[in-house]
Structure formats: C-alpha cells, structure tokens
Predict the structure.
Amino acid sequence: MSNQLDRQELFGEIVRLLEPFHKGTSPVTPELDISRDLNLDSLAVMDLMMAIEERFDISIPLNMVPEIQTVADLVTAIEKIRQGV
Amino acid sequence: MGVFDRFQQKRELYASVRALGADPFAVRIERVLSPTEAIIDGRYTVLAGTNNYLGLTFDPACIEAANEATEAFGTGTTGSRIANGSYSTHQDLERTLADFYGRQHAMVFTTGYQANLGVISTIAGQDDILFLDTDCHASIYDASRLGQATVMRFRHNDPADLDRRLQRLADKPGNRIIVTEGIYSMLGDQAPLAELVAVKRRHGAYLVLDEAHSMGVLGATGRGLAEAVGVESDVDFIVGTFSKSLGAIGGFCVSDAPDFDIMRVVSRPYIFTASLPPAITASVTAALRTVAARPELRTRLWSNVNWLYDGLKHRGFELGPQKSPVVAVHLPDVLLGVQVWKALLEAGIYVNLALPPATPSGTALLRCSVCAVHDRDQLNKIIDTLTDIGYAFGLLSEQKTAAVA
C-alpha cells in the first residue's frame, strides 16, 4: 500500500471498505453519518474500524472513535494517524 | 427534548420483544428453593441461568457464617473502607484470598464490575496502552473509559493479531497492558492463555486476567484458567468476582506487584463506594474454604457440563465452540430467541436470553449455565424440553438431528 494516497484516493478506499457494512442503496458521500445513515450498531462500527486498521496498517484507538461521525471525519482521522499527528 | 428521547431505537426493540408476551429483562423470582430450583410466576422452575457453578448459595457453612457475621457486626458497613474503616471480615477475606491464590496481595471490591473499573483504570495511566480482547466484558470497556490510557482492541482469542497490534505501536512510550478473560461469559470459550502469555513476554507487557467465570471451575485447586494452563506467574493481575462460583457478590484482585497496596488510596472505584457488608465477606470466606476442601464439586460440575453439552449437541443444536459451564445455544434471530426463551420458561426451565449487542455473535443466544448440583433428571428435562421446543419453532429438523447422530 502506497503512502502517497491523497484524500480522494483515501475516500475511495474507505467507500470500498464500507461496502460490506452498507445495507442501503444510496451512494456513500463524505457527509454520511457512519452509524446513523449506515445503520451500524456499536459492534459493527468496531468491526469496520478493525478492517480499516488492517487495510492501512494503522492503530485507531478506541478513544478516537466517538469523534468519528461522518465518512469525512474518518478520512481526516486516518490522515492524522498516518502522519503521526 | 426529553432526556430519554435518544433511546427511541432501544425502546422500539424492547417493545417488540414485549409484544411477544415475554419480558426477559423483568423476570420475577418469587421463591428460591435450592441452587437449581425456584418458583417463577407461581410455577416450579429448574434454574439453568444462574452462574451458580458450584451451587454454594445454600451451602450450610456459608449461610452460618453470614448469619453469625450479621449478628456480630450488623447488616452493613454504611460507608467506604477508607472513611469508615475496614471490618476484620474484609481483612480476613483478603488474607484467605491471597492464601488461596498463593499471592502476596489481595484486594476486595464491592462488585466484580467495580473490581475491573478499579484495577484497570488505576494501573493504566495516560501514557500507557491497553489492549483488550474484543469480546471482553462491558466492565472492562467501561474501565478503559474511566482511565486515561490509549485503548486498543485485538481480535477475539487471536494471539497473532495481538502480536501485530503490539508491534505496530512498538515505538510508542508507556506500559502495554493486555486484558483478557479466562472463560468468556457469553459463549463459554476459553482464552488461548499460553499463547497470549508468549506474546506478552515478547513485548514486555503486563497481563490482566479476568477469571470471573473460571474461578472455582478450572485448575487443580479451582484458581482458574491460569492455574489450569500453568502460567500463573505470568499473570500480573487476576481479577474476579464472588457472584459466580462463590455464590454471593463482590469482586477482587490478587497480585504480586510491588507497591500494590497504593491502590487502596488511589483507586476511585475502591475509595468512593460503600464496602461489602459483613454477611457477604463472611460467607465468601467460608465459600473459598469449601472450594478448597471439596474438589469433588468441580468434578461433578464438569460431569454435568459434559452431559448437557453432549446431550444438546447430539440433538442437533448449534452450541458455543468449547465445553464450559456456560452452554450457549445459537438462535438465528432475536424475535425467535425471545419466543424460544418464553416457551422454555413456561415449561418450567429458566435460562438466560442474551441479545445483541451483548452477544459477540450479533445473534441471540440462549445461555444455559450448569451447576455442580444439577441432577441428571434436571439436565435431561432441559435437553428434552429444549428439543421439543426446538422442533416446534423449526430450530431443529430431522435432518439436523440425523446429521449429528
């Protein structure tokens, strides 16, 4: 996995990872609320986070999860973690 | 906006459960006849959802000790140990526990929930990293929120995944603290403790083991999974409860960590709550002596576990992956789970109904807990009744039964 992914590519990757969790038909947008709009319960959100950790070889602390509401929040969080912020 | 408005979704789910004519969260037990029998809704009921693994709730020595302590010390301590003082019964229990585990230190908490809160939130500081098994109990998750540490999870019972996650954060400062359980409360499966210990050693981490459901159940003297696997010296903190095998309520931690006693003045869930009443500390002390003196209780428990697990498996039920005093029957969906649970209760058998998100499978579970003093007639009644109900609700079919016969 390249470290050079820009924000747009990162978003595309996340859309792909969200697919198994996305029960609806509407497209995934940055504004989408992950738990409300995708109707994910807390366990499914955790599974999604673990899938993302594995895909990008990063650690997303549980403490960060409450701040991640939308897909855009998730992209920002991953960018921050990858930059070691 | 009302303060409970945000629970609308939960309210709807609960209402749909009650619409089936059952309320699994409001069972009223009118009389308890023995560790395995009660009167519920005026009906004689076999209890198989108690966590009362050794059947000690009516142990004569425990009842006598509780009665004597109440007479001598009164009904309650009316405050915390740090403010109101420790009763000799608290200290006797702590000494008995330390001896039972062969550890230097033992500390008693008012509940098992608070033991996890008190230990984990205290030992994991701001710069430290906690690694929790995904299936850890809610008290462990809540403990990690009470403290300041970074919280990571690893895949359930997956030492290689834990190893990768520790490796990923290898250059970060701070202690690494791994938390796992002896027997997991929902599916009854055990931690691969020898493998987890190897990972712990490789990364120089600490290990906290919650033996709530394995104390009194596993190990040559009933100390739990760490004793059974032979890795007790690698477990830095054992946390447990008095509300399962020991038949009362309360929690504890045992350890050989230097300076352990500082917890008594820094652990908030220990400091800011009332201490256990004399009747409880006395009955638990007596129960620990019974566990040590009567290993045959554990033999009978496992004989019953084999009987119930093999019996249900043979009839075609899909069960938890490993034999344990928690025998979990998988049910494909929540509403069917509620109906099966209700039919069982009406047939005079009480088991626990576990619903998502409390279940790791995301499906409903009928959680049966086995007791050392269940007799074969009771266990056969559970197997036969559940089988009849299983056919009636389409959980079982001739093909499924034939497939395992």
Summary: Chain A touches chain B at residues 41-43, 46, 50, 57-59, 61-63 (CB under 8 Å). Chain A has one domain: 7-82. The CA atoms of residues 10 and 17 of chain A lie 11 Å apart.
